[in-house]
Amino acid sequence: MTTAAHPMIVNALGQLDNPNTPAAQAAATQLNPASGQLAVDARAIAEARASGLTAVNVTLGYTMGDLPPYEHTLDEIAVWDGILDAHPADLLKVRTADDIRRAHRERRIGVIYGFQNAVAVGEDPGLVDSRVAGFAEAGVRVVQLTYNQANHLGDGSMATANRGLTPFGRQVVEALNDHHVMVDLSHSGENTCLDAARHSRQPVSVNHTGCRALADLPRNKTDEELRLVADRGGFVGIYFMPFLNPTGHATAADVVDHIVHAVDVCGEDHVGIGTDGSVTAVDDLDAYRAALAEHVAARQAAGVGAAGERADTYPFVVDLRGVDQFRDLTRLLEKRGYRSDRIEKILGRNFLDYADRVWTA
Predict the structure, then answer these.
(1) What gap in Å lies between CA 356 and CA 97, rounded to an integer?
(2) Which long-range contacts (CB under 8 A, 24 or more apart) does 129-133 make?
């Protein structure tokens, strides 16, 4: 059971690091920094705990670039295993929904391993099942099918062809179902999302997105996509990202508007949060702008950026960040008339219930 004093808070896609260390600041300019460059330090852990965070789905493995997808992904899993082994009193690897409950009970941070691109499964249909089984055995609980660009499973949100799920993509979805791994459709193109939601035997998720009806940008989902995911028992997480406002300057009010719209479309049992950010805030925003401009330029040059990304748009919501972000969100939802039970669902219970539906063998 959760309580008003200590609700269960599950970030369906986020980060667990301190972006203010010199190493982290250097990595911030890179196209695809590795997990080993993250500063999962005392400040990051202390502030995550102080925020009330129960569990977070962190991105590891191959997402983009010239790295060998499978080998890089195995290395990243090993890095995160090392991070968790170094902090046993504070961090807990999540394999089951009960592990999230355990993290909440023991006041630890549950760490959920997730991919933001599925190309690490390779291109050989004969290897798909063994690759997915191996990832699941290693603790990977969430696999996003595509990033912004197209791959051999389907199209990302920035792929203009807007193809549906490919035959190979259908095979991957089936293998993820067989091994009880979440099929995450964040970043996918509209037709790939709709096809995957229909093809999957298990409920699917869109762990970090916004609502296209409120901000017509490709990274946001249409009401048709949101409704289909929810109707099939899935989960939708709203992010704290610039894509919530067409100007790119999203505010806390925009986050609330998108949550309210998603609840109206999906129902209150299928919506949560996937901030796509860390609890620990950037301390020096002026210095951060220079690194951000370099990073955005690198993403655009590599063809992996999304419409709405610009050097003057932060990849977070300035007035909804830091240790108090979840408490601030709670107060804003209360002002919109949301009762405590509905707020607790959005903060974490809906993701937990979704995990129960998918991760149960």
Answers:
(1) 6
(2) 129/175, 129/178, 131/70, 131/175, 132/172, 132/175, 132/176, 132/178, 132/179, 132/181, 133/175, 133/179
Higher pLDDT, 298 or 318: 318
- Listed residue (187, 196, 198) closest to 164, CA to CA: 196
Coil, strand or helix: which one is 319?
coil
Tokens describing residue 42: 């005392």
What is the per-residue pLDDT for 361?
A: 62
> pLDDT tens across 15-34, in order?
999 999 998 888 777 777 88
CA distances from 100 to 11, 62, 94, 159, 242 (A): 11, 25, 6, 35, 29
Please give the angle made by the CA atoms of 33, 117 and 101, to the nearest 5 degrees: 90
Residue 328, classed as helix, strand or coil, is helix
CA distance 61 to 48: 22
- Model confidence at 278: pLDDT above 90: yes
pLDDT at residue 206 is higher than 70: yes
Evaluate if residue 351 carries a pLDDT over 90: yes
